[in-house]
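DEPOSITED CHAIN:
***
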Amino acid sequence: MKENPLVTVYITNHNYGRFIDESIKSVLNQSFKKLELIIIDDGSKDNSKKIINKYANLSNVITIFQKRKGLATSNNIALKIAKGKYIMRLDADDYLDNYAIQIMSEYLEKNSNYGLVYPDFYLVDLNGNIINIIRNNKIDKNSTLTNPANGACTMFRTEFLKEIGGYNERYTCQDGLDIWLRYIKKYKVSNIEGIQAKWTKLE
């Protein structure tokens, strides 16, 4: 019997063919190997499908191609099929440090009273050059309104995320604030010091 992965990472994509290959590779190249990767292509019209299909036959990769449904619906699709004890979304234009999953999952394994962890970030340009460092520091119910939390690159306990009902599908984008406000009412959260993810600045 195949053992379930400890972590589910899922990538949502809509016409980000120029970035998604690097995003996928950053998951598959993680130092932590007990993970599954779900790739949801949300109605792309570019070359995304061709790129994603390169990875479709890997045993730890699940690919889904669907008509445009939006971010929140795609999040819930991933949440429904995820096998991992922990779950994290990676946006298609972002990528991870090689040790990100290991560091975040180890923290949750050692701290059972915490419901999620979130990293700091590098902000990079289209060529991958670092242009800024984003320090998230402490986020709570008071600071979230002025320092909005991010839905991506945040590792949740899958069971807890399901307990609060998953993502509100009335939101078509920017899921971070809603899910965090509901989540931190019930569960403790923590920032992981250091940089474990990179965001691509598109403008």
Remarks:
- The beta strands are 7-13, 35-42, 61-66, 86-91, 94-96, 114-124, 130-134, 155-157, 188-200.
- The chain has a mean pLDDT of 86.
